[in-house]
Amino acid sequence: GESVGLHLPTLSVQEGDNSIINCAYSNSASDYFIWYKQESGKGPQFIIDIRSNMDKRQGQRVTVLLNKTVKHLSLQIAATQPGDSAVYFCAENPSYGQNFVFGPGTRLSVLP
Amino acid sequence: DGGITQSPKYLFRKEGQNVTLSCEQNLNHDAMYWYRQDPGQGLRLIYYSQIVNDFQKGDIAEGYSVSREKKESFPLTVTSAQKNPTAFYLCASSVGQGYYEQYFGPGTRLTVT
């Protein structure tokens, strides 16, 4: 597979447990955020997004929480499965018409 | 079956040679992007294009060039001027620049020796 994420922080969770992946973003003016999942050797896949006028958004088995006060974003994965093993990273958009800024990511490892 | 394709998946070149990475999308997206991914770092933007026949430098454009002659295609050339070209290259597209999800291709791993 690709050597992406060799030096990333790693979160190890037991299969079936919930996972929480955190992201500190840099720009207090950012108002749109995306979480991506990247499996080894593949391109990133969209998981969920959230705008700054919300503090929580839920998808299928995933929830994103946004705390603008401390510039913090988290991704919660319920009942983590082996297929969830991947690198997860957040992206922030400083304002409409600008380009995304991507975080380095966290490697999620699901233990049997 | 809509999506973004990149080819080849693995590419090997000798130092001093230019190499062109292919990116094609059939999503009818106006905006296309090229990123570089290195271990332990976030994606870094090389070039982007919001419309055919127009493109802009990103954060690390030195040593790279692009063209956008067709809406579907956004090839990236890694020139010999790029000092550290070995990396994983990702192409993406979106409806437009701004609050739109970017769809990514599978990536090309370039190794220059």
Q: Provide the succession of SSEs of chain B.
A: EEEEEEEEEEE
Shape of chain A: globular
Class from secondary-structure proportions of chain B? mainly beta
Compute the CA-based radius of gyration of chain B.
13 Å
Structure explained in plain terms:
The complex is a heterodimer of chains A (112) and B (113). With 112 residues, chain A is mainly β. Chain A has no helices and ten strands. Chain A has strands spanning 10-14, 19-24, 32-38, 45-51, 56-58, 62-67, 72-77, 86-93, 101-102, 106-111. In chain A, a hairpin with a 7-residue loop joins β8 and β9. Chain A is globular. In chain B, the strands form two sheets. In chain B, strands 2, 4, 5, 6, 9, 10 and 11 form a seven-stranded mixed β-sheet that branches. In chain B, β9 (87-94) and β10 form a beta hairpin. Chain B has 113 residues and is mainly β. Helix content of chain B is 0%, strand content 49%. Chain B starts with a strand and ends with a strand. At the A-B interface, β3, β4, β8 and β9 of A face β4, β5, β9 and β10 of B.
Structural key phrases:
heterodimer; A: 112 residues; mainly beta; six-stranded mixed β-sheet; four-stranded antiparallel β-sheet; globular; B: 113 residues; seven-stranded mixed β-sheet; 11 strands; 0% helix
List the helices and strands and how they pair.
The complex is a heterodimer of chains A (about 110) and B (about 110).
Chain A: E1 10-14, E2 19-24, E3 32-38, E4 45-51, E5 56-58, E6 62-67, E7 72-77, E8 86-93, E9 101-102, E10 106-111
Parallel strand pairs in A: 1-10
Antiparallel strand pairs in A: 2-7, 3-4, 3-8, 5-6, 6-7, 8-9, 8-10
Chain B: E1 4-7, E2 10-13, E3 19-25, E4 31-37, E5 44-51, E6 54-57, E7 64-66, E8 76-78, E9 87-94, E10 103-104, E11 108-112
Parallel strand pairs in B: 2-11
Antiparallel strand pairs in B: 1-3, 3-8, 4-5, 4-9, 5-6, 7-8, 9-10, 9-11
